[in-house]
Amino acid sequence: MLSTNQIKYLRSLRERKYRLREQAFLVEGPKLIGEMLPHYRCCMLVGTAPMLAATAIPRDVEVVEVPPSFDFKRISMQTTPQSLLAVFELPAEVEPKVKGLTLLLDGVQDPGNVGTILRTADWFGFRQVWLGAGSADLFSPKVVQASMGALAHVQVIPLTDTVGVVRRFRAEGVPVYGAFLDGTNLYEAELPTVSQPTILVMGNEGRGISPEVAAGVTHRLTIPVFGTAGHTESLNVAIATAIICSEWRRRG
């Protein structure tokens, strides 16, 4: 059974400052936990006996069995909690390297958008996403849940100096594409192959790409509007990312 201190510990991991202090993050549900287990070190598993029995538990994991009557809402952020929760170690920091088409999120703040973009990158086979400054915390429960297991397949690297990284790779000859409301029509633009080192920048939900990062963009893309007068002002950033990734992949 969970102790009071363990419950406090699990609840604390909802907040970024405690995730950083403990170097750990939460994952909920058997499917998502199963996806993550081969790729991240698991520290603790909390679940009912049937859930634990159905899970391939690695060695050296603290396992806490709770009775069916346990109220998972005490430790879960889900409206309808599933009876299995895991604590994983935060991964070590990695130096960014451009591998094929690499997505860079510049201040994408909504956890749902970040998680959806990770799913999109995974779907289209783009294996690296960089999280620029101001973006949602990668290991917040909402991002983890919205990614639907994409974190197990896509390498995500948080950046502390987004502008410096863009400048460095541009100086090395890496093309930097960005999505803007004005630019070359996506369907008419020349695009590198998906395997060629390229950066694609997607901007903040309201402000778009910041001026500082935009200064490093070498190719401006826009998704053309086909609607009639009075159409919506802009596309959601996750939807725009999916459209661009789809066209990039279609070109090969």
From TrEMBL:
Gene Ontology terms: biological process: methylation; RNA processing
Keyword Cell wall biogenesis/degradation on entry: no
Pfam families: MRM3-like_sub_bind, SpoU_methylase
Domain named tRNA/rRNA methyltransferase SpoU type: residues: 101-245
Domain MRM3-like substrate binding: 5-86
GO molecular function, one term: RNA binding
Top-rank lineage group of the source organism: Bacteria
S-adenosyl-L-methionine in keyword set: no
Keyword set, alphabetical order: Methyltransferase, Transferase
Protein name: TrmH family RNA methyltransferase
Organism listed in the record: Porphyromonas loveana
Annotated family: Belongs to the class IV-like SAM-binding methyltransferase superfamily. RNA methyltransferase TrmH family.
